[in-house]
Structure formats: C-alpha cells, structure tokens
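Recall the central idea of this unit: under ordinary conditions, the amino acid sequence of a chain determines the structure it adopts. In this exercise we apply that idea directly, starting from the sequence alone.
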Amino acid sequence: MSDFVIELGFGRETRRLTVPEKNFAGLVQPQTPPPGPRGPELVVEALAAPVGTPRLSELAKPGEKIALIVSDLTRPFPAAEVLPPVLAELAAAGVRDEDLTVVFALGSHRAQSPQEREALVGPDIFRRLKCVDGDPADCLRLGLTSRGTPVDVTRVVAEAKLRLGLGNIEHHYFAGFSGGAKAVMPGVSSRAAIEANHGLMVQPGAKAGRLAGNPVREDLEEAVGRFGLLDFIVNVVLDDHKKIVHCSAGHFIEAHRAGCAVVDRLNAAPLARQADVVVASQGGAPKDLNLYQTQKALDNAKEAVRPGGIIVLVGSCREGLGEKVFEDWMLSAPDPASLVERVRTGFQLGGHKAAAIALTLARNDVYLVSELDPRLVERIFLKPFATPQQALDAALARLGPQAQALVMPHAGATLPLAPEAP
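Accordingly, the structure predicted from this sequence is:
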C-alpha cells in the first residue's frame, strides 16, 4: 500500500501533504489543456479576430482618452503579458501613450502601492503610461439598473472615450464567472453600487457556473450595456501554472461567453459522490493573500464534501482577514448563525463573505491552515492548524479510519459537480 504525496500552494511556497492510500478519494483539479499555443501569442490571435466587434485598431481614434481597466493584485491576471499586444494594436490606430490610462480594478479591495502597480504591468509600461488605482470615492453616477442598482463609475473611466476591460475568467461563486462586465461592476464602481449588485447573491440562481437566470450577472451586464461602459474586452483563461491557454477579445458579453465555455471545459469537475474530507488550497499567491480571497476556495470545496464532513482550507492569509467590514463582522459575531441572519436583514459588502463562511459552517467544520494567529482563527469559528498534514490527520482521526478525502490543489479555480448526499 502506497501513500499519495501532494504539493499545495501556500503563499509563494508549497506545503506537502501525504494522504494514506486507503483514505485517498482522488484529486479534484482543472483539466490539463490540450496541446497548443500558450502565452501572449494567443492574445495577438484574439485581437486579430475579435468576437462581436471590429478590431481594436478600428475602434480607437487618435487623440481620444482611453481607459484600460486591469485586474488588481488579488487576481492572477498576467497584465505584463497581455498589455503589450493590446498597446501594439492601439499604436496601429495612432493612439499616443499620453492618451492612455491603466486603471486597476480594485472593487472593494485595498489600494496598491506604486511598487505593486509596477510589478503588475512591468517596469516599461509603468514608465510609459499613467497607472492609477480606481477610486471608489470619486465616481460619477450615471443612473440605475432596472433592479435599482446605482451605476457609479470611477471618474477616469466614466470620462474616457474608449473603455477596455482586461482580466481573466474563472468560476465565481455568485456571479457565475469572473471577467467580462465585472471589470466595471464591481471593478471600478462605488461601494454603494457594489453592495447593491452583490446583495442579489442571496437570490436563487446566483451561483458558480450559472449565467442565464443569475441575477447578479444580469444586473451587472445591464449596467454596463445600458450605459455603454465597455467597448472591448480582452479576457484570458489560465491553467494551474497561471499560463494563458485561451484568450477571448471583443464584445463584453459575446467574447466573455466564449471564454466561459472554455472555463467550463477545463475547470468544472464532475464527481460521483461527495467526500468525508476535502483539503482545499487556493493555489498560493496571489489568491491566498488574505482570508477574504481564500474564502473562494472554501465556497467551491463545500460542493465536494458531505454534510457533517470536514473542510481543510489551506491559504497563507499573510495579510490577515483582508477587508475591514469582513473583519468587523467576523470578530463581532457571537456565533456563525448570527452572520447569516445579519446579511439577510441588511446586506453589506464584506459582510457577505462572512455570511458565506457561516453558511458553510452550518454544514461542515472548517480546519484552517494559515499564517494567522491561532487565537484569531478560533475567534472566527475555525480550527487552526500549522500544516495541512496536521489538519488532515486530525480530520481522519475524528471521522474514522475509513474516511475518504478529496484534495483540491486549486480550489478557487475548480468547481466540483457532485450529487447532493441524501
């Protein structure tokens, strides 16, 4: 009998996990993309044949102000690889560097330092172009969606003549998928706008992998479409080594859907049954920067574990909990159930992720392997462990010698599809 040894991402390092053969139910991870081109050449090809729009070199006009909305440091989007082909396409239209602004889509995330912005786009582009964080406090209100969501867009984007959205596509736990219109909502929107849109997460249909009938996705796409806030997108799909394996460019819905189909083929993982234990890693930096981001792995992992089972969540969380409202909700709650009740009676951005954790805790215990202070981990209703091995050993000891464990090395990017346990 042989054991299974697996390396799990943990910040910029890895942690080793050994699972006894009798307990190993398998790996749940993205599919290996078929052989073919990788990297920026796929971006060049997508720009040459956009979906649903003319080429970017035809849309852009010399002298017009152009905003390039780019993912921030909490996303694995390879901006330094994607931007050069985009800038070459704009240069072919006669666009000058001084008319371009790279706007980082912070959403509700913290501001970035100049060094962090430079690291995202690379030294050359950082020197050439104006690179700023979106400012959620300096937005222009353009109107409301049919669901009453305010359409507030950061000024530098709202005042641009041409707006491009650059990001990556993966499953998103209540918007269906990331990418597309999410560059604007929540990427460069006000906190009030984000809260109104994200408040729809409690409605039926707001779940990972769903587009049709998803109120969150429908609302944000209405906001972008009604007010013409995205003229062109460049969305990439990444493999588990963060390499570009697909690129879609063009219309913010049509090109996005083409990328979503690729994500489903690569990252949706059908399962025969749910496991007793699921070990879920966010895959390392930058996705496990804090618990606010690492929660995405937890939300996918819960689909693979039976009621009463245990989730071992692995993420460095070296920057702490990661968001002030989220932290306030987690630290002030007397018990998990109160968080669920609180989000139902008064949605607040940041608090929604606290409620998502609480919903999981109502069904499963969560063992957290992180760099957080163990006392803090216990205070937020999770059980702290120093290593994935210690956490798994404790879970197997508790659930019995025949307990079956699944391992998700890239849980934030993997959506398990398992039948519900009776």
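The chain has a mean pLDDT of 93.
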